[in-house]
Amino acid sequence: MARTPLEVREAVPADASALIDLWRLCVAGDPATAGDVGPSLVVWHEPSVGEATEALRLLEADDRRRLCVATVGERVVGAIHVELATTTPLHLSSTVVVSELHVHPSFRRRGIASSLMGVAVEWAEAAGSGLVYAWAPSASRDAHRFLTRIGFGQYATVRAARLRVLQARAAARASGRGTGRLIAVRRSLRRAHDGLARTGRD
User: Fold this and answer.
1) CATH classification for the domain delimited by 6-149, as one of 3.20.20.80, 2.60.40.10, 1.10.3720.10, 3.40.630.30
2) For residues 94 and 84, what is the distance between their CA atoms, to the nearest angstrom?
């Protein structure tokens, strides 16, 4: 029996439910990517179908971002998100950033990830970008092996933190600085008081 051909196309709002299922399998279902990143930080928070549908509508209208899917027949078996971004805030030229490259576990090692990466290559060529960036969860060894195999080298480390953790740390630092200032004021007052006391004795 002939194998159903693979097709890569842009995602549409009707793909919302299938894409949530794909993310659930590839992210939430993968112990390497679903665990904590730092203290109590869970990577995956499943959106509702309504939220995902609206997000896909916004993507359709955004000419600097694309979410593409790989399908076998009517089944969504992979996805890739590509975005045009400037290398730094001082540049005008754009480069391509790849994220959220996922392939259904039952369809891996069939060239689907490579086909999806073709989207990034085409976009980079069209944008005149000589460089493509890609990020993947630090604990996802398969993703990093694939990226290394096709030519990506390590460039940077992406970290994440919950806002409440940063707020607590910032508050603690501010409190520490305030305590330090209070101690300095007390020492200054004590020196002034001691100086006056010595003057009175003289």
Assistant:
1) 3.40.630.30
2) 6
